[in-house]
Structures are given as structure tokens and as C-alpha cells.
Amino acid sequence: MRVGTSRAPQARDADRAPGPRRGDLVELGIDPDELPDGLVVADEHGRVICFNAAAERITAVRAAAALGQRLDKALPLEDLEGRRWWQLTDPYGGLAIRVRQPERNLLLPGGREVLVSARYVRTHPTGPIRRVVVTLRDTEARRRTERSHAELIATVAHELRSPLTSVKGFTATLLAKWERFTDDQKRLMLETVDADADRVTRLIAELLDISRIDSGRLEVRRQPVDIGAAVGRHIQAYVAAGQPADRFLLRIEQPLPALWADPDKIDQVLSNLLENAVRHGEGTVTIDITPSVSPREGDDAGTSVTVSDEGPGIPEESMNRVFTRFWRGSKRGGTGLGLYIVKGIVEAHGGTITVGRARGGGAEFRFTLPVGAPACLA
Predict the structure, then answer these.
(1) Are 84 and 106 in contact (CB under 8 A)?
(2) Which residues lie across from 129 on neighbouring strands?
(3) Is 219 helix (H, G, I), strand (E, B) or coil?
(4) If you count DSSP H runs as helices and E runs as strands, how many of each does the chain have, helices first?
(5) What is the crossing angle of helices 183-215 and 338-348, to 10°?
(6) Are strands 248-252 and 285-293 parallel, antiparallel or unpaired?
(7) For residue 359, what pLDDT band results from cuts at 50, 70 and 90?
(8) SS3 sequence, 161-187?
(9) Rounded Cα–Cα distance for residues 220 and 350 (Å)
(10) pTM of the predicted structure, to 2 decimals
């Protein structure tokens, strides 16, 4: 606990207002050293009376050295233009109506960046300041988010460049030299343009899904869903595209509870899982649909869908990264966003999804959805 009273004699004599002593905080069930953020408190004379463990870690300043020091000495902050922060804000001599400083990026000595916010505690509105409470946060979490966004932008730019280059090239060629090509050549180029346009459309749809998942705005429009028929349609599409029919094994355990879910989004989940199994797996792709216990509290029934293959599977060390952005496994290709979106859709339905090793050695994805029946049918 870095709450102390080691202060300059004049400050001890002048400051009669009680500070956040250990006893006061313990009575409230609060120990400043247990707070995740740095906490620095200065009294009405600008002397530091609280400097918690997180503040020590973030600033690399010992609490014993900070306690009793003036706030601007114990916590010398500069803005990103190199100006001294406490001189700019002047908490003790500035406007009497100010109550806080919003969070902003500031620099510690040595150039380390921290997120700082402050609260001015006054004896009464517009009265003199009794306490200045400062919180400090490390910027590493924000930097990870920024790196993730930068990686997303770079991935999207890369994925868009190839199909758009193709579309631009073929359309420019057709417009300039239409008469020189046979009908078969024109058809081939237009089919390529059409396929690349579909690829761009899918990528944009993925980006919109990620935006909705990250912001918690992914809407689920529940309708009765025949999950067995939905899987059957995907299998038929693969067979029509040239996959052998005996590569797929669909097993349905009856009776299944009536499932209410968003049919388009469930199709998206099935499409991603089956595509992964077909593209990255080997041997038979087995889809098991079984009744199960609902993953959502308050619901009794649920439906589980397991998709497994007989390929090499997913390395144990990669299991915890499968549902993160940009995970592509050992084979490159695609944006690496599909399984991240799958997890978001399943969780938006109140369900769960797991990954493991199948009996045949390949990958096994299993998602479980609550039946989601409307209250009027329950």
C-alpha cells in the first residue's frame, strides 16, 4: 500500500483536511495497490499523498520518493509537443469552475507514453481545490488495438488489390479491343470479372460483419431453421461443383428440438466451417447434428453441429488462436477473418463454439445453439 504521510513540514502544518489514509480506504474495502490503473493523489497544497503500486510500475518511480513531493515534480508530464503539462493546465490556479481533465496521451521522462486523466475535488463548487486525483494507464492495450486495425486495413487493401486489378484490366481491354475478341474470349473475361466482383462483395460483407461484431450491433433475426436441410444444401452445392458425393457424411440424431435462429447467418457459419474442412482437411468430412443441453442459462434444449475431417488437424499450440483475426493455419489464402466472424455469429445467438481434434486426427469444430424459441411458443 503506497499511501503515506511523508510530507514536507510546511505541508503537514498547513494541510488539515483528511487525506485518503489506509484506514479510510480499508473501511471502504478499497486498497489503492489493488487498482489496475495508476492512482496519484495530491492535497490542496499540491503535495502527493497517495502513489499506488500501479503508478510505481507505470512511472518507474518509487512511492517513497514521490510521497510528499510536489505533484509536478513527482509526476513530470509533458504533452506530445514537449510542453510541461502541469504548467499548461495549472490545476490550483486555473479556472475555478474546472472539475476534471479528460483522458489524453502524455509523456513521462524518457518519452514513455501514458494515458492520463485528472479530477479536481473542491471544497464546494467554484471553491478552492482540496484534492487533485490523477489516474494513469499504460498505452499498450490501445497500441494493440491500433496494430490490429492497421493489420486489418493492410489485409483488406491486399485482398482488394488483386480482384480490382483484374476487373480494371479486363474491362479496359474489352472496351479498347472489343471487336478483336471472339465470343468465347469475351465470355471468359466477363466470367472472370463477375467472379472477382463476387470476391470484392464477400470481402465487404466480412468487413461489415466485423464492424457489427466489434461494436455489439450484430442483429439476429430469428426464424424456424431446419439445420439438417441447411447442411444438405451446402453438401449438394459442393457436389455440383465437382466434389465427390462420398466425401461427405451427414448424420442427424432425431428428434431435434425446433431451432429458431437467423437462417442467413447460420448459412454463413456452415459455409465457413465446411469450406475449411474441404479446403484444409482431407478424407471424409463428417457433419453430426445432435440435440444437446442449451449453452444459455434458462434454456433447457439446444442443438449441436460438429464438422470434422480426417486431415492433419490443427497444431495444439494454435488452438487458442483459431478464432482470432487473421488466423490462417499452415496454408495461406483468404483473409483469415472467417472463423472470427463465425464465433461472433454463434455468440450473437447465445451459443458457443469450440475447436479440437477429431477421432480421425483432423480438425473438429463444434457449435451449440440454444433453441431460441419465442416466449409465446415456450
Answers:
(1) no
(2) 122
(3) coil
(4) 11, 12
(5) 50
(6) parallel
(7) confident
(8) HHHHHHHHHHHHHHHHHHHHCCHHHHH
(9) 10
(10) 0.60
Q: Check if the beta carbon of residue 283 is closer than 8 Å to that of residue 244.
A: no
**Helix axis angle, 338-348 to 263-280, nearest 10°:** 150
pLDDT tens, residue by residue, 9-45: 333 333 333 444 444 455 556 788 888 899 999 999 9
134: number of CA atoms within 13 Å, CB side? 32
Q: Which of 346, 326, 355 is nearest to 338 (CA)?
A: 326
DSSP one-letter code for 35: -
State residue 151 phi and psi, 5-degree precision.
-65, -40
Burial of 70 (0-12, 13-18, 19+ CB in 10 A): middle
Count of CB atoms situated within 10 Å of the CB of 247: 17
Find the angle CA(241)-CA(244)-CA(247) to the nearest 5 degrees. Answer: 120
CA-to-CA distance for 205 and 199, rounded, in angstroms?
A: 10
More confident residue, 209 or 151: 209
